[in-house]
Amino acid sequence: xxxxxxxALMLALPAAAxxxxxxxxxxAQPAQTPAPQATISQAxxxxxxxxxxxxxxxxxxxxxxxxxxxxxxxxxxKISSAEWSAFQTKRNAKTDPAKSFARLDADKDGFVDKSExxxxxxxxxxxxxxxxxxxxxxxxxxGHKSATKPAQ
Length: 152
Description:
This protein is mainly α. The chain has six helices and four strands; from the N terminus they run H-H-E-H-E-H-H-E-H-E. It has helices at about 1-20, 35-45, 55-70, 80-90, 95-105, 115-130, and strands at about 55, 80, 110-115, 135. Strands 1-4 form a two-stranded antiparallel ribbon. Strands 2-3 form a two-stranded antiparallel sheet. The model is unreliable at about 40-50 (pLDDT under 50).
């Protein structure tokens, strides 16, 4: 009897410590001692660090790459200048497709691949992340109604 109580207490302590570190109030404990398995299965979920508010670099890159790679009409994993021009025309882009393609094609091989997009969007992310916290808040993203407008 005492052995079970000590075991239950030892298993409950890490969960209680994890709950104390979170900003949420701890759930009400039942009158009975919980089964050891229930305590163990709950502990990892409660010790996870809360996610940062905003868009991370990886999320930013993934979203932008998904949109840009729609230009890859032949499915070879890279975008040619012709594919880019057709994509920009379809989108009614205001910029010259040749100039924007040249900015993306870092190695000047005539194709834009995932690694070039990763590098391009990492630089873009760094410019947008005004407070340098590693996440883009809504007001740091261009086009959002709360974003600061550039000086004219």
